[in-house]
Amino acid sequence: MRSLLKPTAAAATLLLGLTLAGCGGDTGSPAAAPTKSSKGTGATGTEPDYTPTGALLADSGFRPAVNGFGFQNYGNDENPANLTPATMRTLFGDAVCANVLDGACALIPQAEAWMEQQNKGMGGGHCYGMSVASLLLHSQALTPSAFGAASTPELGLANNQKLQEFIAKQFVGQNFAEVKAGQIKGTPSQIVDKLIEVLKPGAPETYSIGFYKRDMTGGHEVTPYAIEDKGSDKAAILIYDNNYPGITRHIDVDRKANTWTYETASNPAEPSEPYEGDATTASLELDPTNPAQRVVAFPYTGDEPKGGKGSAQSGVPTLVYLDGDPKDHGHLLISDDAGRRIGFVNGKRVNEIPGARFLENKSNNSTYATEPDYELPSGIHFTITVDGTGMKKADPTDVVILGDAFEVAVTGIKLVPGAKSTIDMSVDGDRITYSSTDAQAPDIEIGENYEQADYTFTAQHAAVAANGTVTVTLPLDRNVFTIDAAKSGTKSEIGIHMERIDDHSARTFDKPSIAVSAGGNAAFDFDAWDGGATTIGLTVTDNGVPRTTPLATK
Questions:
Q1: What gap in Å lies between CA 50 and CA 40, rounded to an integer?
Q2: Contacts of 219 (CB under 8 A, 6+ apart)
Q3: Stretch 3-20: mean pLDDT
Q4: Which of 296, 313, 295 is nearest to 304 (CA)?
Q5: What is the rounded CA–CA span in Å between residue 176 and residue 291?
Q6: Exposed/middle/buried for 465, CB within 10 Å: 0-12, 13-18, 19+?
Q7: Using CA atoms, how far apart are residues 299 and 319, in angstroms rounded to an integer?
Q8: What is the distance, to the nearest Å, from the Cα of residue 155 to the centroid of all Cα atoms in its chain?
Q9: Which of 211-225, 352-366, 494-508 has the lowest mean pLDDT?
Q10: Rounded CA gap, 60 and 209, in Å?
């Protein structure tokens, strides 16, 4: 439906996984030795500053006390301004806008779902965004005065919406295809060699350094600025860890053994924990700054022709992610029609689906074990099992699926230890069947992009009894939204939310409570409403007997 910017075929390979990351960095005098501030505020209270004693093999001039932020890495507790539709438009251009009226971007369903998930992910911290933002300030691509202070350490976060939005904007750049293409991975010794090469004053590209635990959990991002020669084939990567404002920290590398060690708490509220790796763990990476500083293509911007199968043939991979407790959550196991799987089996990762892969999360908390995101080849049918095995307590759980021209979400699953929910989605995202081993009543949402308009339909509190199923459809070939409870095993009081956006306007409809008996269904014929009428036809079938009622809309 959009006559706005359309992504190229090459850009369609862009993957935007949910990541929770955080870091910081900033400017300094190239020739100066590391500025010493005897104490810094960190995760465990007051932390000592590190003073290097060996020669510096490389030095970018960045200094934490001079160029780092004066505030610690933060989550969402104080409700910072993260991504907004305006920021999304800045990042991706008009392609993410269903319309732009009076300068305001109304997001397409996929972009809105992606934005909401990214914002939730920042609850674990903003370290990646802080790292990139501080590096941009150090390179003088930006000035602190643009955010209200004379220097980076003087910048305040509270009531500074512009800075909050900018840090969030940098945070999400970490999984842009352009950033991934410039990412440098290698052994600990190779990472040190690359940093010796690039850590120079005025370098055309700057890098943050990301690291994980051996099991790829607890990822964190910090800012390297110098390399110290500690002798005997040992080196220290001097860093600004944004959990410790104003002080120098260091990652130790044994170049002969090809190992690295560091201790941090990626969330300031948590105790510090050791990180370590070797030449086999692939747990260190350098992330470039510049590729995320220009408009990039958002991959999920296709249109569904009525009666067509466009998204299944687009070639854009499907993205699946779980949103739950960062420490005690369920796991996903995704299976295709051939029985091949990606996800967790008995707590261990498996990947048997050709072309599928895990997208690792930098959780920004050393105690987190967040679920990875999942990328699946387009055009395949798959089923998702949400498995509560091994959980210690109940956890509100959401599952979101993004495709080229659709978004699907099953939210509000009350996942309890040992229970399982199953989500069976059609290839084009126009049908969702949900079932559970225990009684549940989640919200099921389908958002579709059509050539003339974009829609988001939600069935709220779609109840199932234990081992019951409910199916929600938004078919591509007709304007009827259906909730089929024929096998639900229980009656429901379903709420309906519908939204339609075209180039000129947005319309919404809400009906809070519609009684659907066990074995019945509800169908909403919105064809007339789609054409501008003020009624929607609701047909509720009970014991095989349909009854149609016109519902008035605003």
A1: 10
A2: 20, 21, 210, 211, 212, 213, 266, 360, 361, 362, 363, 364
A3: 39
A4: 313
A5: 8
A6: middle
A7: 11
A8: 27
A9: 352-366
A10: 14
Q: DSSP per residue over 283-320, as a string?
A: -EEEEESGGGGS----S----BPTT--TGGGS-PPEEE
Specify whether the CB–CB gap between 375 and 357 falls below 8 A: yes
Contact 141, 294 (CB under 8 A): no
Q: What is the mean pLDDT of the chain?
A: 87
Which tens digit of pLDDT belongs to each residue from 293-331?
A: 999 999 898 877 665 555 555 688 999 999 998 889 999
As given in the structure block, the two tokens for residue 425 are 């989605």
Q: In angstroms, rounded to a whole number, what is the distance separating the alpha carbons of residues 212 and 217?
A: 6
Residue 2: alpha-carbon gap to chain centroid: 25
Q: Of 399, 401, 434, which Cα lies nearest the Cα of 329?
A: 399
HEC assignment per residue over 210-249: EECCCCCCCCEEEEEEEEEEEECCEEEEEEECCCCCCCCE
Least-confidence region, from 32-41, 103-112, 204-213: 32-41
